[in-house]
Write a structure and sequence with these properties.
alpha/beta, 6-stranded mixed sheet, 20 strands, 33% helix
Length: 470
C-alpha cells in the first residue's frame, strides 16, 4: 500500500475543499503525485495569507469566493469536515463520477496500524490524549484527527507495530466506513444542532464509529450510549462499559468487560482476568469527576496495550491539554483558568464541577449551535458561581435560560449577571467582579465562530489579556 497510494493518485485530478488545517499537509503530499491539484476555499487568495502563497508555490489552482464549490469535476474530492457531505454540489460531483472522500476517511480505510478511536459530545480531546500516553506499542504512538493533527500525510511513516489514537468528530464520522480496532463514545448530549438536521442524525453520526470496531467502549452513565450498548449486545461485538458507579450484576456477557469507580478506586474486569484495582481517584492529577470518566475510557480503550504501572504514572504526571481547565496565572489572589474548549453547556457544567470548592466568576457565550442552555443554568445554580459575564451571540439565550430557571428567584440576590458584547471587555468585567480567593474561568458553553476562527484562538486571546493584567 505504501507504493500503491502514490500510484492511486498518479494521473488523477484532485480537489481539496478548504485550505485549512487538515488539507494543507495533504496538498503538499498530493501536489507532486497527481495530474492536477485544485484547492477550493470561500476566502480570497489574499485572505488565505500564507496558506494561499504556499498553495500557489505548489502549483495548485485556487478557486475562491462565494462560488468556490461550483463545477466540481475532479477525479477525487477531499471534503473538509465542516462541509456537509450531502450538499448539491457534492451530489452533482458524485453523479459525474467523482470520488468524494475526506482526509480522515481515506486514512482509516488504509488502516496502517492498530487504531484507537474516540468520539463523544464531551471529553474526547482529553481522553484521546490520555489514550495516546497510555499506549505502549513496540513502535511509536501517533495522536491525531479532530484534535488537530491530520494523519493521511503521515501514512508513509507509519509501521504495522505503531499505534494511532484518533479523535473523531460527528462531522468526520458522517461518511466514515472503515475498520477501527477499539472505538469509544464518551457520551452523547445535544451539540452541533446548527449543522446536523437534528439529534437523530447527530447520534447516528457518533454511532458510526462502532460500525466496524473490534470492540466498543461505551458510557453506562449516559442514557444514549447505554441504549447503544444494549443494541450492540445483541451482536457479537464485545462491549466494555465504564461508569462512575459499580455496574449492575448480570450486565456483562462472557465477551464483555468494564471499568468503574467504587469507593474512589478505579477497577477493571476483563474476561479471564477477574476484578483488578487500577488506581485510586487521588492518583489523577487532573481535577474533576469528568476526568475520572476520561481516564476510565482511556483505560478501557488501551486494555492489553498498557499496564497498571503505566496508567498510574500518566495519571500522576499528566497536567492536561491546552484550553481544557488550563491554569493561566494567579493575580491579586484570583486564579484565572482557560476552558475555551468548553463549547457546550455540558462541558461547562463539568468544568464548574471541577472547581466547585471555590467562588467562581464565569465568562460564557459565543457562537450559537442551536442547543438548549437550560443545562448550563442548572450547573450555575448548583455550583459556586457568583458572577456570570455574558458575551457573544449566545449571551441573550444564556441570560434567558438563567433568569427563567426555577431557582433564579432564590439565587437572584447572590448571583450577578453582566453583559458585554466586547470579548476583551468581558474579561475585564470578570476581573473587576473577582475578589481574592475567587477563580475566573473562561468556559463559554458555546463555539467560537462568532468572533474567532476556532477555540484555540479564543483561548489564547483570553490568556494574552490575562497575562498582560498589571
Amino acid at each position: 500500500m505504501k507504493t500503491s497510494l502514490k500510484e492511486y493518485f498518479s494521473g488523477k485530478t484532485v480537489s481539496l475543499l478548504g485550505a485549512g488545517i487538515s488539507n494543507m499537509p495533504l496538498a503538499e503530499m498530493l501536489a507532486p503525485w497527481c495530474k492536477k491539484l485544485t484547492v477550493r476555499d470561500k476566502k480570497s487568495v489574499q485572505e488565505l495569507g500564507e496558506n494561499g502563497k504556499k498553495l500557489i508555490s505548489l502549483g495548485a489552482e485556487l478557486i475562491t469566493g462565494e462560488d468556490y464549490l461550483s463545477g466540481i469535476d475532479e477525479d477525487i474530492v477531499f471534503r473538509s469536515p465542516g462541509i456537509r457531505p450531502d450538499i448539491p454540489e457534492l451530489e452533482a460531483a458524485r453523479a459525474c463520477g467523482s470520488v468524494v472522500t475526506s482526509e480522515m476517511e481515506m486514512f482509516l480505510s488504509l488502516h496502517p496500524c492498530p487504531t484507537f478511536a474516540v468520539t463523544g459530545s464531551d471529553g474526547k480531546s482529553t481522553t484521546t490524549t490520555i489514550t495516546s500516553k497510555l499506549l505502549e506499542p513496540s513502535g511509536k504512538t501517533i495522536l491525531g484527527g479532530n484534535i488537530g493533527e491530520p494523519l493521511l500525510y503521515r501514512y508513509h511513516d507509519i509501521e504495522e507495530n505503531d499505534a494511532v489514537a484518533v479523535e473523531l468528530s460527528s462531522f468526520q464520522l458522517m461518511t466514515i466506513d472503515a475498520p477501527i480496532d477499539v472505538a469509544a463514545i464518551t457520551n452523547i448530549t445535544p451539540n452541533h444542532l446548527n449543522w446536523h438536521t437534528g439529534m437523530d442524525e447527530y447520534i447516528a453520526a457518533k454511532r458510526k464509529i462502532l460500525d466496524h470496531a473490534d470492540r466498543a467502549v461505551l458510557n453506562y452513565d449516559n442514557d444514549v450510549t447505554r441504549e447503544i450498548a444494549t443494541e450492540l449486545q445483541k451482536t457479537s461485538t464485545p462491549v466494555t462499559f465504564f461508569s462512575l458507579s459499580p455496574l449492575p450484576s448480570g450486565l456483562l456477557r462472557d465477551i464483555d468487560s468494564a471499568a468503574w469507580l467504587e469507593n474512589d478506586v478505579i477497577y477493571s474486569l476483563f474476561p479471564g482476568e477477574g476484578k483488578i484495582e487500577i488506581m485510586k481517584r487521588a492518583d489523577i492529577k487532573l481535577p474533576g469527576i469528568h476526568n475520572v470518566a476520561n481516564y476510565m475510557t482511556a483505560i478501557a480503550l488501551t486494555h492489553g496495550h498498557t499496564s497498571v504501572e503505566k496508567i498510574r504514572e500518566v495519571a500522576r504526571t499528566f497536567g492536561g491539554v491546552e484550553h481544557r481547565l488550563e491554569f493561566v496565572r494567579v493575580l491579586d489572589g484570583v486564579t484565572y483558568i482557560n476552558g475555551s474548549i468548553d463549547s457546550s453547556p455540558t462541558r461547562t457544567a463539568a468544568a464548574l464541577s471541577a472547581i466547585a470548592d471555590r467562588p467562581v466568576v464565569l465568562i460564557a457565550g459565543g457562537y450559537d449551535k442551536n442547543i438548549p442552555y437550560e443545562p448550563l443554568a442548572d450547573a450555575i445554580f448548583s455550583s459556586s458561581v457568583h458572577t456570570v459575564v455574558l458575551t457573544g451571540a449566545t449571551a441573550e439565550k444564556i441570560y434567558a435560560a438563567i433568569t427563567t430557571h426555577k431557582d433564579y428567584e432564590k439565587h437572584a440576590g447572590s448571583l450577578t449577571i453582566v453583559k458585554n458584547a466586547d470579548f476583551d471587555g468581558a474579561i475585564n468585567d470578570a476581573r473587576s467582579a473577582a475578589k481574592a480567593g475567587d477563580t475566573v474561568i473562561l468556559s463559554p458553553a458555546s463555539a467560537s465562530f462568532d468572533r474567532f476562527p476556532n477555540f484555540e484562538v479564543r483561548g489564547r486571546r483570553f490568556k494574552d489579556i490575562v497575562n498582560n493584567f498589571e
